[in-house]
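Sample pair:
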Amino acid sequence: MQGRRTATLSLLLLGLGRAAWGQSPGAAGAAPAPAPGPEASARSAEAPQSPTEDLFARKCGSCHTVGKGKRVGPDLKDVHKRRSRAWLEGFVRTPSGMLDSDPDARNLLTEFGGVRMPDLGLTPEETKGLVDLLVRCSTEPCNLAGRFTPATAATPQDVARGRALFTGTQPLKSGGAPCLSCHVVRGQTGAVPGGLLGKDLTHVFARIGDEGLDAALANPAYPLMNRVFKDHPLDPAEVFALRAFLYRANLGSEPAAEDALSLGLFAGLGAAGVLLGLNAAWARRLTGVRKPLTERKG
C-alpha cells in the first residue's frame, strides 16, 4: 500500500548523502543554543505550516526527514553542506534525468537499494523553495508535520476500523482499492493475508515511522501506489485508522492467524479450476462433433 510507498521529496533525494544523520549544525566553538522549554515546543508544534513546509509534508515527508533520521531515503539535514546548490535543485526538479546520468546520483541509488525517486512535477519556484527549506530547517525548528495525532493514541475501535479498511470489508470513501489487493500483513487479516504485488507491511511502522507512514498514506510517493490513489485519495480519518492498524501489527500483540493461504494461492487454484472447466467443455465439443459422424458411418 508503498515511496509507501505524492508524499515525498521522495524515494530518493536518495542522492543526498550518507553522512551526518543527526549531525549538529553550527560553527565550531559557538556556544550551544539553549534547549526550548515545553511551552516553546508546544507553540512550535501547533504553529501553522508555511506553503513550502506543507509542500515538503505532501511531497517529501513519507521518505525523508530533516534531522529526525532516515526513512526510505536519507535524512536531509545539512544536505546543502554535502551537495552544491545547483546539484540539489537539479535533483529535486528532475531526479529521473540525474539518476540516469549523474555518477553521484547513481552511486546513491545503489546505496539505497535501487529505489528511484520519481519526478514530482515541481515548478522552478517550488524547487527553489524546497532547497531553501532544507537549508533553513537544518538550523532551526520547522513544522514539517502540522497537527499530528500519533497512532499510539488510537483506540481498539480505530484499530478494528483500520483492519476493515485494509481488508476491504469496509470500503474506502473515495472508492480506492483495499490495501489487501497488493500487500500482506502477516497474522492480522485472517485466512487470506494479502497480495504479493507490494511490500509486506507487517513492520512498515517500524521502517518509516508514524509520521512517515502518515505522509505515505495521505500522499503516496511510490509510483504504482501514486497512480492507484491519485484519483481515489484516503481521507484523514482513514489514514489514522490504517496507521493504528499497522502500528498494532508492528507490535505483534494480536494472535497470529493462519498465514498459509494467500491471494496467490487462491489465484492459482482459481486458474486451475478454469483450465479444468475449459478442458471439460472442449471434450464435450469434440464428442458432439464425432457422434454424428459415427452415426452416419453406421
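Residues 1-46, 253-266 have pLDDT under 50 and may be disordered.
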